[in-house]
Amino acid sequence: MKPFSYARAESPDAAVAEHTEGSAYLGGGTNLVDLMRLGVALPNRLVDVTRLPCDRVEDDGGGGGLLIGAAVRNSDLAAHPAVRERFPMLARAVLSGASGQIRNMATVGGNLLQQTRCSYFQDVTRACNRRERGAGCSAREGDHHNLAIYGHTSECIATHPSDMAVALAALDATVLVHGRGEFSLDELYGDDPAENSALRPGDLITHVRIPPSPRMTGTYKKVRERASFAFALVSIAAALDVRNGVVQDSRIALGGVAAKPWRARRAERELQGKSATRSDFARVAEAELEDAQPLRDNGYKIALVRGLIVRTLEELS
Questions:
Q1: Angle at CA 207, nearest 5°, toward 204 and 212?
Q2: Where in this chain does the record put each FAD-binding PCMH-type domain (predicted)?
Q3: Residues 218, 170 contacting (CB under 8 angstroms)
């Protein structure tokens, strides 16, 4: 492991001041430390942000929204009474990720910014545009069975590994970046799959804001290769408002299919005013899949997305 210096920040201002060129923020370290051991991440300085006053889940005004500190541990987030009561979809998503030991360490901010688990990104002997722009993408002709079917480019076909981020996308959550303002998750991740996020060096996420939820029933489901401690092949965070058998509103986000949580906006538009029936749900799934671009070995995800959308919407209706 490359030698590095260490600093502990007590405030967001201090953290940003300590972050110099080549630095990295250290939260739970459940992803960063692994990448340092592999030689993928080579920070010359770690700025510990676990002591910042951003470790609480609080009411955001009086409407039922929440303000979640970036230093909140994943286990604490999933167990928080307000999260379980108002946003059970989020609690389910968090509990679907990793193991209990990792959730006890991992932080909300770190979870959102964790790196792809593409094996070619983690192997410094292979070409990867995420590690070195212009190096190429070994995954395109290699093992890509678990990689993207949406939004990928010739530069990168990685998928984002976070379960939490998928639920937050469906909940229209925003992130607060110290000194920069408030960003949607689409803005946070940007449109370039070869970049882990659109943040600038030194940018620090301090909170996640979830707006009050409309009248909907929601859930999170995850398809994976084994029953526990595995990243999603495909996942879905979905919520429906159905009245008199007609869909009034919906929220759908997919995981395991793109370099960021994939908000299924075409499906949401198609659902508006439709009857809550299996046949309509199937047509909605097909509409969303029109934008999919499966690769040589991951076309099976088309069937997974189709089935997961239909089954989940049926359960919610």
A1: 150
A2: 1-215
A3: yes
Is residue 62 classed exposed, middle or buried when 0-12, 13-18 and 19+ CB atoms within 10 A define those classes? exposed
Reference 41, options 82, 84, 89, 4; nearest CA is 4
Question: CB-based contacts of 277: which residues, under 8 Å, 6+ apart?
Answer: none
Cα 231 from Cα 46, distance rounded (Å): 27
| DSSP 8-class letter at 275 | B
Domains of the chain in sequence order: 1-48 (3.30.43.10), 217-316 (3.30.390.50)
Cα(271)–Cα(281) distance, integer angstroms:
8
Which ranges constitute the DSSP H helices of 21-60? 32-38
Distance CA 32, CA 158 (A): 18
Asked whether 105 and 28 are in contact (CB, 8 A), the reply is yes
Helix (H, G, I), strand (E, B), or coil: what is residue 277?
coil
Torsion on CA atoms 53, 183, 64, 255, rounded to nearest 10: -100
pLDDT in tens, the chain (317 residues): 899 999 999 999 999 999 999 999 999 999 999 999 999 999 999 999 999 999 999 999 889 999 999 999 999 999 999 999 999 999 999 999 999 999 999 999 999 999 999 999 999 999 999 999 999 999 999 999 999 999 999 999 999 999 999 999 999 999 999 999 999 999 999 999 999 999 999 999 999 999 998 889 999 999 999 988 899 999 999 999 999 999 999 999 999 999 999 999 999 999 999 999 999 999 999 999 999 999 999 999 999 999 999 999 999 99
Query: Global pTM?
Result: 0.97
Return the C-alpha torsion angle 113, 156, 142, 114, nearest 10: 0
